[in-house]
Write a structure and sequence with these properties.
Strand content: under 5%
Number of helices: 13
Order of helices and strands: HHHHHHHHHHHHH
Oligomer: single chain
CATH topology: MetI-like fold
Radius of gyration: 24 Å
Distance between the termini: 43 Å
């Protein structure tokens, strides 16, 4: 009886999880279906059955902007920004966690303080700085600031404290390893699950960033994909462009899904390698 009851509870739990998973996938399915429908169909009805307006929506997107050029521009910004965020945040977090020096508490407190300050407050000053440095219409202001990511540093510092025993670093020092060698050959592999998690968040944030590229860039050929897609939403005939908007959004999500799938596998494969017992 106990075995039968356990199987029933397990079956109910699986059914619940399957239903929850399907519910989570429903918005993606609706987005894909709407990318094949016309604007009038989207406004007047709801269905999960694809329509026949995919080619029309595709041509309408390219009437406003080059979708592939926008994706390339976004990749040019998102990939370096993600790498800079992951590497330098990991190095900063490791230094704050493992090195005891005067003022480390003050630095960590400032990081927490900057986490609470909205980035939009410094937007005017940042634009004036870019103007004086002649960096307007350049991708540099969208990439270089990724070096300073307080939220990522905070997360990775806590992660280092939980998974990296100090004795492991001390043993490497006794064996004659330099600090940079220890960081690259020991610390980074141990931190890889946390770094991969934050890299996903950094890539998504940079890929979907709309405000900063809109402020810094003013040449159409340099617009990132979110800024280009805004031209569809800002058009006077927005009701007829609904299908084209859904199509552009659907295609823009593909790189995010690929990055998430790649790093998810990396996280799973690294969990056992990062579980070091002291």
């Amino acid at each position: 009886m106990n075995t039968m009851g356990y199987k029933i509870k397990k079956g109910i739990l699986y059914l619940f999880l399957i239903g929850l998973g399907l519910t989570c996938l429903l918005p993606f399915l609706l987005m894909i279906v709407n990318s094949t429908r016309s604007g009038s169909e989207i406004v007047t009805s709801f269905t999960l059955i694809p329509s026949t307006h995919l080619a029309e929506n595709w041509s309408k997107v390219f009437e406003y902007f080059n979708l592939f050029k926008g994706m390339l521009n976004s990749l040019i910004v998102a990939l370096p920004a993600t790498l800079l965020t992951a590497y330098f945040s990991a190095m900063t977090a490791y230094g704050l966690a493992m090195y005891k020096f005067k003022g480390s508490g003050v630095i960590f407190g400032m990081i927490l303080l900057f986490m609470m300050i909205p980035g939009q407050l410094g937007l005017i000053g940042f634009y004036n700085l870019c103007t004086k440095l002649h960096l307007v219409n350049s991708y540099i202001p969208l990439v270089v600031p990724a070096v300073a990511a307080p939220g990522t540093v905070f997360f990775l510092r806590q992660y280092v404290l939980s998974v990296l025993p100090p004795s492991l670093i001390e043993a490497a020092r006794i064996d004659g390893a330099s600090e940079l060698y220890s960081f690259h050959r020991i610390v980074l592999p141990v931190m890889s699950p946390g770094i991969a998690t934050m890299a996903i968040m950094a890539f998504i944030g940079s890929w979907n960033n709309y405000l900063m590229p809109m402020i810094v860039l003013n040449k159409n050929e340099k617009f990132t994909l979110p800024v280009m897609m805004a031209t569809l939403r800002a058009s006077t005939d927005i009701s007829s462009n609904q299908g084209a908007i859904y199509l552009a959004v659907t295609i823009s999500v593909i790189p995010i899904l690929l990055v998430f799938a790649f790093f998810s596998k990396y996280i799973i494969s690294s969990i056992s390698a990062g579980a070091v017992k002291e």
